[in-house]
Design brief:
Blueprint lengths: L7 E4 L1 H6 L8 E7 L2 E9 L25 E6 L6 E4 L1
Amino acid sequence: MSLAPSPYIALRPDDAKRLQIEPGEDGEVELEWDGRVYPLLVRIDETLPKGLAAVPAGIPPFAGAPLPAWGRLRPAAGGRMLRMAS
């Protein structure tokens, strides 16, 4: 049993919908950041400002990352990318 959560990205419901994730659905996106692409599960967080994404700073691949940072998000199957701050 692991005590650390899996890597994820938190998005507002309307931002998740722009990435083809409907409210109540489990979703996955790809984050292009620092020259790499990371598949991440999506958690919905209605308290985030529009256009802002949140990642857990203490778990890989974000442990030690200089945050805040800019990245690009796209649906996990590919598709249109969105530029968001994290």
